[in-house]
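Researcher: I'm comparing several assemblies side by side, and this is the next one on my list. It has 223 residues spread over two chains. Same procedure as the others: predict the full complex and return the structure.
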Amino acid sequence: GQNIDQPTEMTATEGAIVQINCTYQTSGFNGLFWYQQHAGEAPTFLSYNVLDGLEEKGRFSSFLSRSKGYSYLLLKELQMKDSASYLCAKDSNYQLIWGAGTKLIIKP
Amino acid sequence: DAGVTQSPTHLIKTRGQQVTLRCSPISGHKSVSWYQQVLGQGPQFIFQYYEKEERGRGNFPDRFSARQFPNYSSELNVNALLLGDSALYLCASSRTSGGYYNEQFFGPGTRLTVL
């Protein structure tokens, strides 16, 4: 199958750190995307990992382990505007295979 | 520079009708992908076109078809609409087709409601 699994919903506090996990089947893997999607809007690009390890980009970092079929998105210094759905997607042979998204709720 | 544009923004149709959705990619992008997103779910891949050729097709019935024009714009057609076709239809463009880094830039989507 092509299941991409991520938690349905997470809650965190403003100013804190949250880690959103994503697991995927390793076959046909070219890379792993993370996108942010606010309600009613189109997804916007956050990160793309091809090699193992952590890539940091400001308050957001993304980690990949290809052998384990595992990635996570780390959000630091959470702000209220970070309330959104976060989708991971596997880049696989001319298509992106998407998880259902993790709805992140930020509380003051 | 203009981003990905889609038209129309919203559309209401009845069961059995046909619909055509349009997408213009970012200038210089040669690949267009179409996705269906039902509320609360991630996007589902429908088609990818690159250089006017179909490069990939998702698990959708033959009622769904698409094409890409010489200027790289694209149309998605859905025939014999069903209630279950109600969704947000997203178009995404990228410089290349899949296999390597192909960051996709999304348009605002077309919200299709089938009554």
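Model: For your comparison table: The two ends of chain A are 39 Å apart (CA to CA).
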